[in-house]
Amino acid sequence: MTVKCKPSQLTLEVPGKVRNKYLARIPVAHSREDVLDPLYFGHVMTNAQLTTGDQIECEWEDFSRTIFLQVRGQVKQTNQLLTKVMWEVEDDEFDMPKGYRLDWRVNGYVILLDDEPLDNGFPYQTREQASVRANILAEKAADQQRTSNAVKKTMKTPAKKAPAKPKAVEAANA
């Protein structure tokens, strides 16, 4: 099954005399290859009035990738829109603490630790934002663990008692 762009995902950003500029919000589940498939924008080309020379900025919902396309032609008989990649920007990989991972949900990334959502499942719009928060949560957890270990250590060692005075010394002092 071919993945296709929904008409609601494509917006005219800048109308022009020679060419128009469009913004396409791409779902996270759609791959780069899906977007570059001539059928992806093919069925919306007549609704959006896409013509040769128009530019489409394809921006993933999580801002992990942006591809700038130029329309190079239309094949209306087969609903294909021919495009060329003008340039592309992809996110860097971000360090995640051990045991933590990110999962894309409907409105953003959720931080998971051992498959349990943290921060009450609060969604973060970008992987960068979520990874920064995950590192903060991991550092807080490490601090809590160090404090807990220090408290346990002090609880295990009994308090030292003052040396007992010999009874003969006590009697002499009395």
Distinctive features:
single chain, 174 residues, alpha+beta, Ribosomal Protein L25, Chain P, 2 domains, five-stranded mixed sheet, three-stranded antiparallel sheet, 3 helices, 24% helix
Give a written overview of the molecule.
- The protein has 174 residues and is an alpha+beta fold.
- It has helices at 32-36, 127-156, 167-173, and strands at 10-14, 21-26, 55-60, 65-75, 80-90, 100-104, 109-113, 116-117.
- It has two domains: 7-90, Beta Barrel (Ribosomal Protein L25, Chain P); 100-156, no CATH class.
- The strands form two sheets. A five-stranded mixed β-sheet has the order 1-2-3-4-5. Strands 6-7-8 form a three-stranded antiparallel β-sheet, with helices on one face.
- The longest helix has 30 residues, at 127-156.
- It is rod-shaped and about 115 Å long.
- The N and C termini lie far apart (100 Å).
